[in-house]
Amino acid sequence: TPECTTTLKVGATPAPHAEILEVVKEILAQQGITLDIVVFNDYIQPNTAVEDGSLDANYFQHITYMNEFNASDGTHLVSAAEIHYEPFGLYAGKTASLDALADGAQIAVPNDTTNEARALLLLQQEGLITLKEGAGITATKADIAENPKNLDIVELEASQLPVRLADVDMAVINGNYAIDAGLKVADALAVEAADGEAATAYVNVLTVKEGRESDPAIQALVEALQSQEVKDYIETTYEGAVVPVF
Length: 246
What we know:
The protein is α/β, with parallel strands linked by helices. The protein has helices at residues 14-29, 45-51, 63-73, 113-125, 161-164, 175-180, 197-201, 216-225, 228-238, and strands spanning 6-12, 33-39, 57-62, 77-85, 89-92, 106-110, 130-131, 144-146, 152-156, 170-173, 190-191, 204-209, 243-244. It is 34% helix and 25% strand.
């Protein structure tokens, strides 16, 4: 009956989040829950809107960003569920394979703090460099303890990496910029491991205001997001660029 219907307003960024929510919308409709997807192109409004109650939830950010936002803005946001992560890939530029990397080869990485650390962790995962103990998700070039091939780490604006790929031996590129440039994760020489430090730190979560995690409608949303249907959609649509963690 109409009086039993619930509407959930959920903020999301366009791809892949809003696209994934379109699949969820159909699942929830069968349960009498209307999903109202509100698309944002920034990372601040979807959080302040969950905090002030004008949104019931948002799905756009990774857990580390959410925690930092709480710390800087005094918000009370919590993760209701872990959904996916978007792995970083190491792509071939002038050099076609890891084995062929020459001494002093240039590897481009994003120059912003969070993403540079992710890139360095991927190079460490592949045995190309060793970072200082505990550098982890805050690592910078200064934290490289061992660099047996004397690799030249070139720091560039994240969006510039695909453009400059042909000028360097290799580049570590963010998932979204790789997708935009037509690079497939399947073609990457190396990809962040699903059980690595980065996958845990950068898992994309469904975010709600503290105290709303156990709302029946939020629980229904979590169940729909973590359904086999959504998993199949993610795997088919994004071909490895978006990896479900449920």
